[in-house]
Amino acid sequence: MQYFVIFLRFYRVIASLVKDNIYLVVSILTVIMSFVPAVIVMLKKLWQASPFQYFAIYWIINGLVNTMFLFDKINKQFVEVTSVIYNALDIPMMVGIIYLSAFSLALRKFIRVGMGIFILFEIFCLIRGGLKYDSLKYVLGIGLLFIMTIIIWQISLYLQQVVHATREKALLLIHGALLFQYGTYIVVYIFDYFLQNVADGVDKFLIYYISTIISIGIGSSGLLLKGLQKLPATTAIRRSFWAESQERPGAQ
Fold it and tell me: Of 41, 79, 98, 199, which is the most exposed, with the fewest CB atoms less than 10 Å away?
């Protein structure tokens, strides 16, 4: 029995060291991957091709925020405040980017109304609770459901098209990546706020980092599609889809 206890303690120490090393490698890889879309956009000269440059900028910001978690000596209060600000801005930023690529009038209206209500509720929560993690406990949950609804709606519209141009294929891959990313964030959110004793901080960050790496990889594959940089902002395929759905581009 004594030998078993010693073995169990030894196993826990080794497992902890292995997990810490995996965490370090994955966290560094996440930061590196965050800059990959921007590199692809620059190499393929897509900075004028909206909204691809905005997705790249979003992931750059994500990488810069994650960089501070690589250093243990950074003030904890600074990390918390920065994280709260980023989490508060994350969903409005991404919803705004998706709005730029949305071609359904119904979806654009849903985004405008929903985003206005969400931002007001978020400001109320931050004023009431301050720049602390707990201040976003409920508003983040609502925000994740809101953005998941928008992403699924947008993907369903792309899938309704019989023929997909390169631009639509790229955006479909990027939205698929975002669906996976925010879907995983829901799991992290539940562990972070409601099941805090089930998983430790390292486990939650590992889930977050791995999901980010996978989603950026999927999104980057969309940016790498051949011929993407040669397409105009609005393709003939999209105009055809607008006509079929009795929606005209440029209508408000």
Answer: 79
Domain ranges for the chain: 18-244
| CB contact at 8 A, 79 and 69 | yes
CA 165 to CA 180: how far, in whole Å?
23
Distance CA 22, CA 198 (A): 20
- In a 10 Å sphere around its CB, with 0-12 CB exposed, 13-18 middle and 19+ buried, how is residue 243 labelled? exposed
Amino acid at 17: L
Q: Write the pLDDT tens digit of every residue in 157-210.
A: 888 875 667 788 888 999 999 999 999 999 999 988 888 776 677 788 888 999
pTM, 2 dp: 0.80
Q: What angle do CA 48, 52, 58 make, to 5 degrees?
A: 115
Question: Cα(241)–Cα(129) distance, rounded to whole angstroms?
Answer: 46
- Angstrom distance (rounded) from CA 96 to CA 119: 12
| Cβ atoms of residues 91 and 139 within 8 Å | no
d(CA 154, CA 101) in angstroms, rounded, equals 9
How confident is the model over 29-75, as pLDDT tens digits? 999 999 999 999 998 888 776 788 899 999 999 999 999 888 877 88
Residue type present at position 195: L
